[in-house]
From TrEMBL, chains A, B:
One of the Pfam families matching this protein, by short name: Fe_dep_repr_C
Subunit structure, interactors included: Homodimer.
Gene3D superfamilies: Iron dependent repressor, metal binding and dimerisation domain, Winged helix-like DNA-binding domain superfamily/Winged helix DNA-binding domain
The protein, known as: Transcriptional regulator MntR
Gene designation per UniProt: mntR
Family: Belongs to the DtxR/MntR family.
Source domain of life: Bacteria
Subcellular location: Cytoplasm
Ranges for region Disordered: 1-23
Location of the HTH dtxR-type domain: 34-95
UniProt entry keywords in alphabetical sequence: Activator, Cytoplasm, DNA-binding, Manganese, Repressor, Transcription, Transcription regulation
Transmembrane domains' residue ranges: none
Main location: cytoplasm
Organism per entry: Paracoccus spongiarum
Length: 152, 152
DNA sequence: GATGATTATTAGCCTTGTCTAACTTGTCGC
DNA sequence: GCGACAAGTTAGACAAGGCTAATAATCATC
């Protein structure tokens, strides 16, 4: 056994699909994309709880710029994934896991924002770009952003 | 006519939905998200044509890290949207519009990548982060990135 | 404590983007 | 020119994420 591999020069990693270096990058981006919505939601929910004491779907809908049914369906997925808890017709709470994710997202958001501002970007554009960029910044990049923003 | 607006102090923009400032940011990000895939595809197709003289679905699939049927369906949408042309069982071509978008994406990608590298990021991480970040960078931010990368 | 407005949910539709399985076409060697 | 194998397409499933329309619960307020 264990002698039927690489007749030529492949089958080294136990990865899924060939995985050309570029393909890996795209797969990573697709992975990040799958978490964007959850990240934005838990971040917003944490903020609403902090500011208003509670997070109500109507407020989430307003701040996210989507309709109430969209929020309801998304909250269903977040609950399924263990990030929030909720009772019918009541406001939303973060689980421990949700709180941890929210904290992480808030920090990341803040670092990316500070970084863009320190580059000289106007606040509105910075906020808008940060909202998109934050989900695609690796730990390593984030560290560089933080360092740059600090020394500025 | 035209006298039934703003009883209090609203209805100023002919926008869709209230649009709290944050909501606008999220809507902008969602908009950007809708174009990500098309951008990555036309960029890759342009590159394949440049390097190999033609862009074949099998190569697109490998480089994007997805299966052939996924590519087929996506190419269908790109054709519908006027970015490419194709004949059955033949390779893919960019329309004028597709070429214009590809050029823009290539430039953006290159600037974001150079910027990350000039910050001190390793090439692999830089490539990966650039692949995600490029779609969420405004013109203004891009200009700052380019300036920073140049003076470095 | 009835009732009307606000908030929340449910049902159902649509598009995108991914996959597997099965089939068709094209191409290259002989 | 034929046959294998590679490449491409089609069919169909499924989840996410958006929407509208209709229904249900909550709450304020009288
Ligand atoms: Mn965001
Ligand atoms: Mn954010
Ligand atoms: Mn990309
Ligand atoms: Mn790119």
């Amino acid at each position: 056994m264990m002698a039927d591999d690489h007749t030529e020069a492949e089958a080294l990693e136990p990865e899924a699909r060939p995985a050309d270096p570029r393909a890996e990058a795209f797969q990573g981006v697709r992975e990040a994309r799958r978490n964007e919505l959850a990240e934005d939601y838990v971040e917003l929910i944490a903020e609403l709880i902090h500011e208003h004491g509670e997070a109500r779907p109507v407020e989430i809908a307003t701040k996210m710029g989507v309709t109430a049914p969209t929020v309801a369906k998304t909250l269903g997925r977040l609950a399924r994934d263990g990030l929030i808890t909720r009772a019918k017709y009541r406001s939303v709470f973060l689980t421990e896991e949700g709180r941890a994710l929210a904290r992480e997202c808030q920090q990341r958001h803040e670092i990316v924002l500070r970084f863009l501002l320190s580059l000289g970007l106007d606040p509105e554009t910075a906020e808008r770009d940060a909202e998109g960029i934050e989900h695609h910044v690796s730990e390593r990049t984030l560290a560089l952003f933080a360092a740059f923003a600090d020394r500025s």
